[in-house]
Amino acid sequence: MAPMKHTLVALVEDKPGVLNRVANLFRRRGFNIESITVGHSEKPDISRMTIVVDGSGASVEQVRKQLDKLIETVKVQDITSESIVVREMALIKVKATSATRSEIMQIVDIFRANIVDVSMESLIIEVTGDEEKLDSLLNLLHTFEIKEVVRTGRIAMTRGSTTTSEPGRKPVSTEE
Amino acid sequence: MKMTGGQIVCDCLVKEGVEVIFGILGGAILPLYDTLPQFPQLHHVLVRHEQCAAHAAEGYARATGRVGVCFATSGPGATNLVTGIANAHLDSSPVVAITGQVARRFIGKDAFQEVDITGITLPITKHNYLVRDTSQLGKVVKEAFYIARTGRPGPVLIDVPKDVFQEQVEYHAPGKVDLRSYKPRREGNMSQIRKAANLINQAQKPVILAGRGVIISGASEELKTLAETAQTPVVTTLLGIGSFPESHALSYRWLGMHGMAYANMAINGADVLIAIGMRFDDRATAEVASFAPQAKIIHIDIDPAEIGKNVRVDVPIVGDVKAVLTPLLKLITPTQHGDWLKQLDIWRREHPSTDIRDASSILPQYVVRSIYEATGGDATIVTGVGQNQMWAAQHYIYNKPNTFISSGGLGTMGFGLPASVGVKMGRPDATVWCIDGDGSFQMTLHELATIQQERLAVKIAIMNNGFLGMVRQWQELFHDKRYVATPLWGPDFVKLAEAYGIPGIKVRHKDEVVPSIQKAMAHDGPFLVDFGVEPEENVYPMVPPGASLVELLEAPKKEEVVWPR
């Protein structure tokens, strides 16, 4: 199977050092993290991580199992093949003079992005969407000189009423 | 009840049934040691290097099936534990290590004897803790034992700041452990078990490959029933030795780089491979691309992450070996595999693998065989790592679980002597022989002091060949005999033992081998025998690196050059 980007969602105990355990696991086993985001979940002591990894099906399955093996991991799911909503946010500081400002604002409008800071020589644009949308906005802005970019990395959620925090552990997929 | 952190730790250890602790104290862990006299149930064994505390705890764990416990202080005490913890991690041994840490207000300040031991041991522990809240200490200790011994066992480290040991808090013994994020699965999936049974029932050339998981699970009886019902030959991994009696008619002993040629051939010819409680280590499989090329593979293991990690698997079953074999056995129809077993017996006749040639010098194989005969096969053998280990595995016949105790995954030279300390503490009535090499022995020989201090009747056999023998063998076979850094000077081991108050004999003639072993056995206490063995003896069979299991080198006939061919 050809390598492709997989989206894993991990529920982990909200305890000190958990992110370190996850990062260490990826480093130690030579798995590549494309992006990782961590934050509180809807449950008080549980954090939800969205991890994007590059690899073949078998190697990502190995990543999933190794992640699941960490004592403080409650559950890990590979939601790549499910119907999901994917978002990423970026803040982009772009050079903007009185000559270019209105043109940039038009582009921002088309992308339904927001301008969150204005100065004499620059703008900060806040944009949310999938990676493709962010990439194409960045492409267009390049002509105006991008000064700084911050991206959050992917967060993802399955569509419909099912959630990734449903109780019980997902059966080992090789057993299906 | 108000108790100090130190008292809480000791109280928890007692409640876990701990009787022996291996360790060395120091500043940060002193308050814990200070409370030990209040808990006379806990016997502390003072080792001479913290690495040996972890090895001894592992030896104890393997000998008893219980959790082994070791203590070390902060900084160098903790870092010295690292090799021993890694060993326990790779061989799935339940060990709880408790380290002292600098007081909470000093953490992160590069204080005297401060290291981030939880960070350092992150990839070599099953789990670890830094306890900053004394009220959590009891709960953490209880969890640590639970995690160490359940599921796939492994080492758990608890790092405790000095002032946590000293602080007094209200303490209630912790209740049952319930971790939502850790629920090891015992029972296998029934539909998978049915699939496995179908494969086994239809197999023409089945082979069982049994690993240490069988021993850990206590499933030797179930394994035997499976083998006998389905008339299936059993091959073990190195660490699976003893999971199935090697003198049983269906035993074809063990496979791998230095395993029996006929065991490797059995795997190679199998149409169904039933791999039980093992992890397809590269020393067991040899070149993995050509491993068991004709076989459909059933893999039973408690660790889901092992399934499909190294070898493609047709029927994976995640679960405890015993809990999987019990329902599986009900689905197995009694079968005969006469032709297949006949073929295996032909291979065994043609490639005996453990024949010992006639020699006037002392062959290490002959020493092991003599120990086997002198002990009636009833001893527990603890080994170093290298040639000594392979000869001990090949030429002693093991019929009971946990009678061959050796460092498999990590291959830690120096494991033998400290592990013997733990084994003998755990099984005081067993005959314990430490079969070691002169190189391996010199890595941890200071444990002679521990043996003497505890008056442990460990019998030590040193295969003294003046080389780091296994590496020398590689140099001979693959590096044109360039013996770089393998010739090894050693002290007079008998005088050395005497300096520790331990009697010994130096054996340099073949006819002294058997009497010296008998003398060692007759002596009431520890005894060392220094066998001057054939210096350039090789371990055969050997699968060269990169070759498949059956492309192996066998012991050369006289004058025959085996490599390069």
β-sheet strand percentage of chain A:
35-45%
**How many H/I helical runs of chain B?**
22
> Helix/strand-derived class of chain B?
alpha/beta
Rounded to an integer in angstroms, the radius of gyration calculated over CA atoms of chain A is 19 Å
**Overall helicity of chain B:** 25-40%
- Sheet with the most strands: spatial strand order of chain B: 3-2-4-5-7-6
Mean pLDDT of chain A: 90
Helix content of chain A: 25-40%
- Major sheet attributes of chain B: 6 strands, parallel
* Extended strand count of chain A: 9
Distance between the termini of chain A: 19 Å
Detailed description of the structure:
- The complex is a heterodimer of chains A (about 180) and B (about 575).
- In chain A, about 25% of the residues lie in helices and about 40% in strands.
- With about 180 residues, chain A is of the alpha+beta class.
- In chain A, strand 6 (about 115-120) and strand 7 form a beta hairpin.
- Chain A is elongated and about 55 Å long.
- Chain B is of the alpha/beta class and about 575 residues long.
- Chain B has 22 helices and 20 strands.
- In chain B, helix 10 (about 220-230) packs parallel to helix 13.
- Chain B starts with a strand and ends in a 33-residue tail after the last strand.
- Classes of the chains: A alpha+beta (about 180), B alpha/beta (about 575).
- The interface of A and B includes residues 71 and 175 of A.
Question: How would you summarize what this structure contains?
Answer:
The complex is a heterodimer of chains A (176) and B (565). Chain A has 176 residues and is of the alpha+beta class.
